Amino acid sequence: MRADVHHWDAVMRTWQRTRPQRLWRQHSDIVTEAMLERWLPHTRIERLLKTDLFDEAVHTGLCPMLARRARQVIGIDLSTRVAKAAGRPLALASDVTSLPFCDGIFDVVVSNSTLDHFDSTDQIRVALDEIHRVIRPGGVLVLTLDNLSNPLIALRNRLPPHWIRRIGLVPYQVGATLGPQAVARMLDEVGFDLEQEDTLIHCPRFLAVALLRMVEARRLRTVDQYLLRGLMAFERLKAWPTRFCTGHYVAVRAVRRRML
Ligand SMILES: C[S@@+](CC[C@H](N)C(=O)[O-])C[C@H]1O[C@@H](n2cnc3c(N)ncnc32)[C@H](O)[C@@H]1O
To answer: How far is the CA of 111 from the centre of ligand 1 (A)?
Structure first.
């Protein structure tokens, strides 16, 4: 994981210098927040863990919304630089595969696209075991991963990593990931009951990011709201039977099984 720390620190350093993808990050926050509004428990949440702080380091992120729903929000990130940039009072540099918390202390864990940056699906399993350990029985996990059933993601993950970065497809390392059925299977093995499954971000990401980059470079702020509305229109595809082919992320809400 040491090499990864250097990688994510370097990604953050470049991001702070160039400030790319303002509108894309805004879109990502809007879509993820809408899912969380639907899926977070409506009973009182004492303690909530967010497994990375990238969203908060590069844009508003999800923590302000999470803080309205939970008494205490703790965020961790492997990169000290990301954790610092997130600027939260409870932001820690830590690894999701080895968490510095006691068993069962969280009511909710939110893990949006943290576990899809590892070398292998075995490491996703290690992280899920660790998340399972820190959630109380009956507690809720909201998890998103790059969706391997989307042919564009499957193709992207087969490209050599240096190509992906050279053509600017994703400015950081992508990792092994799973499709909806494999996620469901792994969660069951770890000890979670799957309650909801969804797909998120249905606009073709590569084209959208390129278009938004052009608009940002020309400082056309007047069209921001139209563009964001246009991107949101793609989310209607989640009602179609093809949703697992078009969704960039597979999202699940799972509950830690209670001991019998
Ligand atoms: C590309 S970002 C994406 C996450 C963001 N939530 C999103 O949805 O766009 C991945 C983040 O996960 C963090 N990360 C990578 N491996 C991690 C690990 N083992 N434990 C905790 N954070 C990790 C990175 O430092 C980075 O901030």
So the answer is: 9
The CB of 130 under 6 Å from ligand 1? The reply is no
Give, in words, the CATH class of 2-256. alpha beta
3-state SS record for 205-252: HHHHHHHHHHHHHCCCHHHHHHHHHHHHHHHHHHHCCCHHHHCCEEEE
Cβ–ligand 1 contact at 9 (below 6 Å): no
Is the whole model's pTM more than 0.70, yes or no?
yes
Report phi then psi at 47, rounded to 5: -135, 130
Question: What is the SS3 assignment for 132?
Answer: helix
Per-residue pLDDT of 103-138, as tens digits, reads 999 999 999 999 999 999 999 999 999 999 999 999
Nearest CA, atom 7, ligand 1: 113
